[in-house]
Design goal:
Chain lengths: 489, 154
């Protein structure tokens, strides 16, 4: 039996197989009993044929006995058997023909017996007629001729053959009936035993399967019941926490409603202040335009200063070029003076005075060189200062330019501020409207949350009911386990 | 050549040191001209410069003293070596100074701080140049300050 079948399917299969076995046993028993009945019918039929054949021979004997009594006595009362045979013999022949209609051999014998019966009855009638006509002697002579006796002898042989045949059939059918009876008894006995063994085996298997499957299922039900209890406990705990959370949410939403109303009032104030800011921004825009004009004038003055300083720088550069020439001359003079001193020293005493003059020239050249260096240093400082001033002025010009740009940006910012303030005013009004709607929505949410809190409390109650049901389910599963397993198991 | 006691000396400055050349050996001072290096020249020679139409070897005073030059020379001092001329590259030429003849013997010779192999190389190349350089002096800082004070007093 397939292990994957359901329990109901297994039971149904067992019933189907048991029913098939019972039907098979019933069909075989029915056939055996039918064959037994048929055999009994055939035996009875054979007995009827034997009885009819014996009756035919007896009727013919009675007719002959009545004929002989009448011929001897002339008394009509002796003809009663004969009269009875006249009526009985054709009927018996007809019955025999009907009873042996399935037996060709017997039909042929009846075909032989029927003219013999007719001829015997005609011979009897002729002799009786002769005796009634007073011709008793002729009747006796006819009897003495032995014709009638031959008819009876032939008829006896035929009836005897029929009797032998029917008794053989009777013996054969008795054997068949016995065999059929034994087979029927065997079929009923062994079929019943096989069916009983099958039912017992199926019962044992089903009981084991029931214990195993239902036991496993009960175990699962117990485990699930325990989990359901734990889940119900958790759900109950969660529902309590949810109730507390819902209460907190309700409080928070109430605060949110109050806050939204405050925001709406603040947004109203913001819109009012934004309008004032827009007015101030327009005034600032005018002030910035005046500042832009002043900065443009400063910028022109700065450009003039830069040009003058650049001229000063160029003049200083020209002075530096002149100083280079002076320094070059001083250096060359120094070299020449030293060389003159050397030459004068080589001239002996005559060159001494010239050497003094040359040395003085060298000293003068040195002083010129020093002064030139000093002037160059001062000129360099002047040029540095000019450069610094130019750079500072250019930085100032750039700063003025940047200031002008910043003023432009400030003006643009003021215009943008005006635009933004207008936008802010609109936004503040929208915020005021939205906040009022938000307050209304929050109020609706608070009501909804209150409903949810109520639903949560109901859920908590349902969870308690679930917990109770889970406990009952666990008890029921234990009862079911006790039903399929003994307590000792 | 022995410097006469009353002869002034040419004072040059190089690498923060002052040197005194005997004026009888000095031809002239001039701005430096570009020297042309030649193969196989010693380390203290900068090359050959054309001075007054004559090819003159240029000796670097800084290299002669065993140091490395960090700035180009400011002056050439041409020295008379017999019939030949040699230029010495220095930072600057200060001028003429008269030295006390008694103190001249205390002044260290110019090559006193030069390396021995440098002196050997100069001797191998030009013994006349060696004599001229040996007659020059290295002026210590104390002597130089005394000379400057005397110069300012005059």
């Amino acid at each position: 039996m397939n292990a994957n079948w359901t329990f109901g399917r297994k039971i149904a299969a067992s019933f189907v197989i048991s029913s098939v076995l019972l039907i098979a046993i019933g069909v075989i028993a029915f056939q055996s009993i039918d064959q037994l009945i048929d055999a009994s019918y055939r035996v009875t039929h054979t007995h009827q044929v034997l009885e009819k054949a014996a009756s035919l021979l007896g009727a013919m004997k009675d007719a002959e006995t009545g004929q002989r009594g009448y011929i001897i006595t002339g008394n009509e009362s002796y003809l009663e058997p004969y009269q009875g045979a006249l009526l009985e013999a054709p009927r018996l022949l007809k019955d025999l023909r009907n009873l042996t209609s399935d037996n060709d051999q017997e039909q042929k014998r009846i075909d032989l017996a029927e003219p013999l019966v007719t001829a015997k009855l005609a011979e009897l009638k002729h002799t009786i007629d002769l005796r009634r006509a007073g011709r008793g002697d002729e009747a006796l002579a006819l009897i003495g001729a032995g014709t009638g006796k031959k008819y009876m002898d032939d008829l006896r042989v035929i009836v005897h053959d029929m009797d032998d045949t029917e008794r053989g059939l009777l013996k054969q059918r008795a054997v068949e009936s016995e065999m059929t009876s034994i087979r029927a008894k065997n079929v009923i006995l062994y079929g019943t035993l096989v069916s009983l063994a099958f039912v017992i085996a199926v019962g044992v298997l089903l009981t084991r399967a029931l214990n195993q499957q239902v036991g496993t299922a009960v175990g699962h039900v117990q485990s699930s019941s325990a989990e359901l209890q734990a889940a119900a406990n958790q759900q109950a705990s969660g529902a309590k926490e949810q109730v507390n959370a819902m209460t907190e949410i309700t409080t928070t939403i109430s605060e949110l409603v109050a806050t939204s109303r405050q925001i709406a009032e603040s947004a109203q104030r913001v819109a009012h202040i934004a309008e004032q800011t827009a007015l101030a921004a327009q005034n600032g825009d005018g002030t910035v335009e005046k500042g832009q004009d002043a900065i443009a004038a400063i910028r022109r003055q700065v450009d003039l200063v830069v040009n003058h300083m650049l001229d000063l720088g160029r003049k200083s550069q020209e002075i530096g070029a002149v100083l280079d020439i002076v320094a070059e001359l001083a250096e060359q003079t120094n070299i020449l003076a030293i060389n003159a001193t050397i030459e004068a020293s080589g001239a002996g005493e005559a060159g001494r005075r010239f050497a003094v003059v040359a040395d003085e020239i060298r000293k003068l050249a040195d002083r010129v060189a020093v002064s030139t260096k000093s002037i160059r240093s001062q000129i360099d400082e002047v040029r540095g200062a000019v450069n610094t001033t130019v750079m500072a002025t250019e930085s100032g010009a750039k700063a003025v330019e940047a200031g002008a740009r910043q003023f432009n940006e400030v003006a643009a910012s003021f215009r943008q501020i005006t635009h933004l303030v207008a936008t802010t005013t609109d936004a503040a009004r929208e915020i005021e409207l939205s906040t009022k709607q938000q307050a209304s929505a929050a109020e609706q949410v608070r009501i909804a949350v209150t409903d949810v809190a109520q639903a949560t409390r109901e859920t908590e109650a349902s969870t308690s009911q679930t917990l109770q049901t889970a406990s009952q389910l666990a008890g029921l599963s234990q009862d079911l386990r006790r039903l399929i397993q003994p307590l000792s198991a | 050549m022995i410097n006469p006691p009353s002869t002034p000396w040419l004072i040059c400055q190089n690498n923060h040191n002052e040197y005194a050349f005997a004026l009888c050996d000095v031809i002239e001072t001039m701005r430096p001209l570009a020297p042309h290096p030649f193969a196989g020249m010693p380390g203290f020679v900068l090359g050959v410069a054309t001075l007054r139409g004559q090819a003159v070897p240029v000796v670097d005073m800084t290299a002669l003293m065993g140091a490395s030059r960090t700035a180009p020379p400011g002056r050439y001092v041409t020295l008379r070596i017999g019939a030949r001329v040699v230029a010495v590259a220095v930072d600057s030429v200060i001028g003429l100074r008269r030295l006390d003849p008694a103190a001249q013997t205390d002044l260290p010779p110019l090559l006193s701080e030069a390396a021995a192999h440098t002196v050997s190389a100069i001797a191998a190349l030009d013994s006349g140049l060696l004599l001229v350089l040996q007659s020059a002096h290295l002026i210590p800082q104390a002597v130089w300050q005394a000379l400057e004070t005397q110069e300012l007093a005059q």
